[in-house]
Amino acid sequence: MLCELFVYCVFRQKQTDISDRTLQNQTESPLLRLPPEIRNAIYESVFGNLHLIIQENQRTVAVFHQTPSNGISPTSFTLTELLRVTTVCRQIRTETALLPLEYSEIFVGNISDESMTREFLSKLTPQQQDAISDVRFAVNMGPLVLVISHLLDSGLLELKGLRRATIRILRMYGWVRREMQLMQEHIRAIFKSCSVSRPEFVFEIE
Question: pTM of the entire structure?
Fold first, then answer.
């Protein structure tokens, strides 16, 4: 997998002596010797097909990559380990520090457990939070006041760089299609009135 190969190659660079690392990276690194536009294309290929999924039990963020059949497959590392890769030298940090969050779709689970989303965001710097552009979450059909409360408490409305939100509405027994459509309209209105960003919405009904 391309992302795992990138992690391996970058970590090999970290073995050099710190006093010589900057000069050696600039002159000897196969990656850093490439033109910037090619490096950017590589970064997009590496980080652009990732899915970050908060693991409810372990409270960690697992990294999955998209398969050719549009499914997802787990990688061998977590988000913490992936972010560590971007810090191996100054130039790579400058160029890639925010890309794992900017390019990835982040599944934060069901916002009825807004504490899990808050915990995830609290571990990120403000710059990392602002880099998040694509989130996926589930919401239970239920009283609007609860949906509003969960959204406000989740921290998702505070993400400045959010461009896309995929929302799975979990159907409850007895709810009809018209009520599902109203829920979608209410969620759009909540984001419009309370969010600092204006994301594109994709709704899924389960």
Answer: 0.80
